[in-house]
Design goal:
With 374 residues, the chain is of the alpha+beta class. The chain has helices spanning 12-23, 47-55, 100-113, 228-237, 240-246, 287-306, 312-339, 346-352, and strands at 3-8, 28-32, 43-45, 67-70, 72-76, 83-86, 95-98, 117-120, 122-129, 132-139, 144-155, 169-171, 175-182, 192-197, 200-206, 212-219, 250-256, 260-262, 266-267, 270-272, 278-279, 360-362. The strands form four sheets. Strands 1, 2, 8, 9, 10, 11, 19 and 20 form an eight-stranded mixed sheet that branches. Strands 6-5-14-15-16-13-17 form a seven-stranded mixed sheet, with helices on one face. The structure holds flavin-adenine dinucleotide.
Length: 374
């Protein structure tokens, strides 16, 4: 057996799980494509994220300029007037702006420094064997492929990857994000501001390079004619706070941000963590923290299973399903609060309509119970 555990994907979830496993004496390989992020979006980590990084002995080691405090947030959600939250008054401290591209690179460097094998490449395929998994890794730069054996597999490939899908994924919505940047806000330079509008919601926050990021989250069906820039500018005209704050932003890209649930998210010999298990709606601002939390949980499940607890995988699947159901309900409740303001608007109607459930289920590449799919 080459490794005890292969972790497919070395984003925050995969990196923290691998670190925890390696520190417990497990032989781990992390495989990550190490591709630059397609779009630079502002990301804010909740205060709990810092606590997790502290507990994992990472926060103190991190270069200071990977994160900086976000001390103020405003949300015009239930009504047109923004409600302000001053994080510095919270016992748990501020939220944190995160330079995601460099944060992810630093985490993978940390893995290497602690002796974890990190392979640059893409997991193309996973197959069950008699005693675990065979993982096919493609090195895109060299054009080579190799097969790696492992007893357990952790799927940490994030929101979009289709290659390593061991169970069906339920899509809960069809959200997409139109991203843009503009000059910094001289009044509230550090604030995260969220504003619901008739056709979605806007948010804005500073980037490390000093520019102000602005994003319009909407339903893909509202921009599927490809003219997302025109649609975003029309939407901005109905967003008074953002019209003032971001003015006339340079619109850069449109990216899929659908909310997904993998179910089951664990089975014999494998577990999905982070966005690969539950890709959350950015409205909660808790994707990163949840990915870190789920990474710790995932590592503990693997360690229990390796220690002889045969029920660890099935218990994890039940726990993860319960987490996803709770999350779906909380999120729906949140959207319904804003939906009251525009009950007839296309974007909000689907959150009010009880029947608007999952829109699509993807077939897995491998049967979660163990048989390869034909
Ligand atoms: C538009 C947007 C805004 C967001 N804003 C926030 C925010 O403000 N606050 C917040 O907390 N969260 C936010 N999130 C969510 C947050 O980005 C994610 O929850 C977090 O990145 C999840 O971490 P992860 O490690 O699970 O996945 P990822 O960060 O996606 O990492 C997955 C890794 O796997 C690699 N990979 C994928 N497939 C393969 C493969 N086949 N082989 C090898 N490697 C592979 C990728 O290269 C990547 O490095 C936002 C998300 C979106 C889409």
């Amino acid at each position: 057996m080459d490794y005890t555990v292969v972790v497919a994907g070395g984003g925050p979830a995969g990196a923290v799980t691998a670190l925890r496993l390696a520190r417990a004496g497990t032989r781990v390989l992390v495989v990550d494509r190490e591709q630059p992020r397609r779009v630079e979006a502002a990301e804010i980590m909740s205060p709990e994220g810092r606590t997790i990084l502290e507990n994992e002995d990472l926060w103190e080691r991190m270069p200071l300029d990977l994160t900086w405090p976000c001390s103020v947030m405003a949300a015009a959600w239930d009504g047109p007037e923004p409600e302000w939250t001053v994080f510095t008054l919270h016992a748990s401290g501020p939220a944190w702006h995160v330079d995601r591209a460099r944060f992810d690179l630093w985490l993978r460097d940390r893995l290497r420094q602690e002796g974890v094998d990190v392979a640059r490449g893409s997991v193309e395929r996973v197959d069950r064997t008699d005693d675990g998994w065979q993982v096919e890794v493609a090195d895109d730069a060299e054009g080579s492929r190799r097969a790696v054996d492992a007893r357990c597999l952790v799927v940490a490939t994030g929101r979009t990857s289709r290659r390593v899908r061991l169970a069906p994924r339920r899509r809960i919505d069809n959200l997409c994000l139109v991203t843009g940047t503009t000059d910094p806000d001289p009044v509230e330079p550090d604030a995260l501001i969220v504003e619901a509008v008739a056709d979605g919601w806007w948010y804005s926050a500073p980037l490390l390079n000093g520019r102000l990021f602005s994003g319009w989250m909407t339903d893909f069906s509202l921009v599927s004619d490809g003219r997302y820039e025109d649609a975003a500018r029309r939407s901005l005209a109905g967003a008074p706070i953002h019209a003032r704050r971001v003015g006339n932003p340079r619109l850069d890209a449109i990216i899929g941000s659908a909310t997904w649930v993998t179910s089951p998210a664990a089975g014999p010999g494998w577990i999905a963590i982070g966005d690969a298990a539950l890709a959350r709606d950015p409205i909660g601002g808790d994707g990163l923290t949840s990915a870190l939390r789920s990474a710790c949980h995932g590592a503990d499940v693997v360690l229990r299973a390796l220690g002889g607890d045969d029920e660890a995988w099935s218990r994890a699947a039940i726990e993860l399903e319960a987490i996803a159901r709770r999350y779906e309900k909380q999120r729906l409740d949140l959207y319904r609060r804003a939906a009251r303001r525009w009950p007839d608007a296309r974007f909000w109607r689907r959150f009010v309509d009880e029947r608007s459930g999952p829109t699509r289920t993807d077939r897995p590449a491998v049967d979660p119970i163990g048989r390869p799919q034909k």
